[in-house]
UniProtKB/TrEMBL annotation:
Residues 36-63 form the EF-hand domain. This is Selenoprotein N. GO terms for biological process: ATP metabolic process; calcium ion homeostasis; calcium ion import; cell redox homeostasis; cellular response to caffeine; cellular response to oxidative stress; collagen fibril organization; diaphragm contraction. InterPro entries: EF_hand_dom. One of its GO terms (cellular component) is mitochondrial membrane. One of its GO terms (molecular function) is calcium ion binding. Residues 1-23 are annotated as: Disordered. It comes from the Eukaryota.
Amino acid sequence: MGQARPAARRPHSPDPGAQSAPESALKVLGTDGLFLFSSLDTDQDMYISPEEFKPIAEKLTGSVPVASYEEEELPHDPSEETLTIEARFQPLLTETMTKSKDGFLGVSRLALSGLRNWTTAASPSAAFAARHFRPFLPPPGQELGQPWWIIPGELSVFTGYLSNNRFYPPPPKGKEVIIHRLLSMFHPRPFVKTRFAPQGTVACLTAISDSYYTVMFRIHAEFQLSEPPDFPFWFSPGQFTGHIILSKDATHIRDFRLFVPNHRSLNVDMEWLYGASETSNMEVDIGYVPQMELEAVGPSVPSVILDEDGNMIDSRLPSGEPLQFVFEEIKWHQELSWEEAARRLEVAMYPFKKVNYLPFTEAFDRARAEKKLVHSILLWGALDDQSCGSGRTLRETVLESPPILTLLNESFISTWSLVKELEDLQTQQENPLHRQLAGLHLEKYSFPVEMMICLPNGTVVHHINANYFLDITSMKPEDMENNNVFSFSSSFEDPSTATYMQFLREGLRRGLPLLQP
């Protein structure tokens, strides 16, 4: 009996009158059908392979999907240790979404069905072999606080973004496997690499002992909450962070925690399509998820307990209570604070954070003390969320430019804030000065992002909207001169850098004479 083989593609001579494959598919399938076909055709070769069809087969047959992982096969060790991890999840508070203010007017209930139905963690508890956490081990010779990439990003401002029109994550490979398995405890469709830069997972050592490491990490991942025939709905937390304490050979895990920070009023971006094509209308919103957390219930323990002679010991005492393990105290030789480690990981993900962006009110206190102007960015969505479109454009085109970094560090105190945070600050009665600072900012704000230069008392001496800024930088130099906008008499070749430099210098020209001596 012959073996089944993939269908071969026959070479053919191009026919000038023939339709292209996408045009032919559109004619046969229609717009909605082509949208579904394209979402499954992950390599965009107009051919659905068995692997690409697998999610639909599982959906139609009702079979439980079997995870497909590509990782190094290790021989099973009966004495290896197991780590039990619990998931804690509180669903997104829909009342924190911007669109809740008008009762979700114009938003179909079907569009939000994946979000509304996600009320519990997919796996409340799971057991992991300790060796599966080996990707968290640092490279040889890694120094305390020096970041390294567990999962490197593949995107930049020059490579663009990945498709929105996808439902099912690609099978994870290598070091992606453990991240995928962990995030799958929250939801069955995690993407370990986001559609936008910065992607991936970065880590750094925060403590070193003779036998153990403490590793802090930051993950940029997102989830797809919809399945066909619904349109894609992307759920993108600002970040996952956490730590792991593991032995230097990864045979024992002392502690593990992973979570979405919840100290700000908003921590999740959401995007969903309203049509069957990559260019269809997309809705964008932000919101707050109170808790997305994974935590080890205790240190990893042996799966099988052996005595000195190699005989198996019952894991429970005669009373029925489990055996209690005693772990030695770890004596650390080198340590780095959580705050400093978080800052270094943040800078690794976002080079623009080489400038210290202070909390809003603290920035104005510092400006008064140092007699400097405040460079303030007010956003609808967070500046350091990987999926916030306006903040992302501003970061990639301007704020990571070395000349801009230098001028900001030398001449300004910088801060960025969310509109909602300043609206909340404006309603507080305890501190009239803080209310005034927030009010002066909100008076100048226009959606989606407003960049401002302010005096230490909050007076805005210069400001520019992100949309206007992007319009300017997309103009030809001669058009800019003719329209009397920013001059291009600059040594910078990049129009974005030149324009933002002009904005900052104009702010200095207007603001420095007004600073109190």
